[in-house]
């Protein structure tokens, strides 16, 4: 399994080999020993999510209180999504920066986001299916959203799907009415980069 750290410290892209044969394909998107060797610590399983999304559906930017924070490991098993990592850690040299990568059923890459990072994505095809492992159980009072269309974030959302057809971006009520990055920062709702995390 190959891995590279994204431009935001604490976020990684994993690429496992896809084995093809007469009967189909096989991929191992996650291997605990290899993950731990790359990231430096194991990933615990707090809960597992599966989302099936229509083309153009936007989710996020979601994040959890730190501590305890919530790390995520994501893999698209069907269709395609454009997956976005946003650094929401106040004090981080990459605070406010984002990076997007395609997760799909062709390359079958996976993304890991450490605690304090925000997560968002848009489905690039109908019935895109995203599976993600979260390190902590779902705790609604510790879960937060930022508006993914916040101009200060400047996320360059794709305007066409995997097949090249135009996308109509659709947000849920929670995300569409979520605060901006600056509003969340002013309210003291963002994670703070700790000395331990600075290394």
What is the quaternary state of this protein? single chain
SSE topology string: EEEEHEEEEEEEEEEHHH
* Global mean pLDDT: 94
Topology-level CATH name: Jelly Rolls
Largest sheet, strands/sense/barrel: 6 strands, antiparallel
Look at the structure and give the CATH class: Mainly Beta
Give the radius of gyration. 16 Å
Q: Which outline best applies?
A: globular
Helix percentage range: 10-25%
Protein described:
- The strands form three sheets. Strands 1-2-10-7-12-5 form a six-stranded antiparallel sheet, with no helix packed on it. Strands 6, 8, 9, 11, 13 and 14 form a six-stranded mixed sheet that branches. Strands 3-4 form a two-stranded antiparallel sheet.
- Strand 1 and strand 2 form a beta hairpin.
- The protein is mainly beta and 199 residues long.
- It has one domain: Sandwich (Jelly Rolls).
- The chain is built from four helices and 14 strands.
Give the structure's gist in a few sentences:
The chain is mainly beta. The protein has four helices and 14 strands.
